[in-house]
Design a protein that fits this description.
Blueprint: E1 5-8, H1 14-26, H2 36-44, E2 56-66, E3 69-79, E4 92-100, H3 110-128, E5 132-135, E6 147-148, H4 152-161, E7 163-165, E8 169-176, E9 189-196, E10 199-206, E11 209-217, E12 232-240, H5 249-263, E13 268-274, H6 278-285, E14 290-296, E15 299-301
InterPro entries: Acyl_CoA_acyltransferase, Bact_Acetyltransf, GNAT_dom
Organism: Streptomyces cellulosae
EC number: 2.3.1.-
């Protein structure tokens, strides 16, 4: 086999890098892929991370290459050390995402590529002299963040390098919009549609009092961001007043959301919940959702 080399990303790597990103995305969320423009833009800034992105002082993308073929890639971030940066991010280095092909009969040295690239990443973090090193898998695609359980080869590369999971685990769920509860009229309850913090908000009222709301984000497939995510939306918020627990209000809100999503041309809806909140997970599965995957957030480099 020809020698593996690690070098900084070049613009002419863009198509191969996009293919590598999409191969990993496809293992997590069905029917989603990102455009080359999306990948290139994400290397320069992350506009959706409007709080943490301004704290980044340096960005670097590395690729592992063999026979002019990009077989692995990683994107690194360095956060500033000044007081304006949130304490948990201050003076840290992060492997924002790390991707590589899994071992296979036609690519038996895939682990070598991953380990060589990981070594280069750790060397860069050492040169930055950051106080702590973290890693994740935040590629620019909906519902792909942390370290999805669908990437065991990436988990293995992290663990070989001394990274350990120190954060939370989230359950990502998906539902077909036609499988959501049907709309049923309930006397005394009205639903109002407004703009919410994370998308379109549908709020249920009774006697002038808000009982709960659901927010759905239908902007996941903006053409400048994603090449193939049409028909996909996300629950940004789902809140029920404790006094309305057990009344089926969440089903009514999801039914209203389903009607709105259907008119928007959306046929699938994503949601995520902490793995420790089984009540919330059960509430969604009873309404037509099913578990898509689990993802482990925040990995810290703890060698030895």
């Amino acid at each position: 086999m020809s020698a593996l080399t690690v070098r900084p990303f070049r613009r002419d790597d863009r198509d191969q890098l996009t293919a590598l990103v999409n191969a990993h995305v496809a293992a997590v969320v069905p029917g989603v892929s990102v455009s080359t423009n999306t990948v290139l833009s994400a290397l320069e800034r992350q506009p959706d991370e409007f709080i943490t992105d301004p704290w980044v002082s340096e960005r670097l993308t590395l690729v592992a290459e063999q026979r002019d073929h990009v077989v692995a890639a990683a994107h690194l971030l360095r956060y500033r050390a000044d007081p304006e940066v949130g304490e948990s991010y201050r003076d840290i280095g992060e492997i924002d995402w790390f991707l590589c092909h899994p071992p296979a009969s036609f690519r038996p040295d895939a682990d070598d590529a991953a380990d060589l690239l990981m070594g280069a990443c750790l060397a860069q973090l050492a040169r930055w002299n950051v106080r702590a090193r973290y890693a994740g898998g935040e590629v620019p695609a909906p519902a792909v963040y942390g370290l999805p359980r669908n990437w065991p080869h990436i988990r293995a590369a992290f663990e070989r390098a001394g990274f350990r999971h120190v954060g939370d685990t989230e359950v990502i769920l998906i539902a077909r919009v036609p499988d959501l509860p049907p709309a049923e009229a309930r006397p005394g309850i009205t639903v109002q549609r407004t703009l919410g913090e994370c998308g379109t908000r549908l709020t249920a009222y009774a006697g002038g009092r808000a009982l709960g709301f659901v927010e759905v984000d239908t902007s996941l497939a903006r053409p400048e961001r994603h090449a193939r995510a049409a028909g996909l939306a996300d629950i940004g918020n789902l809140h029920i007043d404790p006094a309305a627990y057990g009344t089926g209000l969440e089903h009514r809100l999801l039914a209203q959301a389903a009607d709105w999503l259907d008119q928007s041309g959306v046929d699938r809806l994503l949601a995520c919940e902490p793995s420790t909140d089984q009540t919330a997970i059960d509430r969604l599965t009873s309404a037509g959702f099913r578990e898509l995957t689990r993802t482990d957030r925040r990995w810290q480099h703890r060698p030895g």
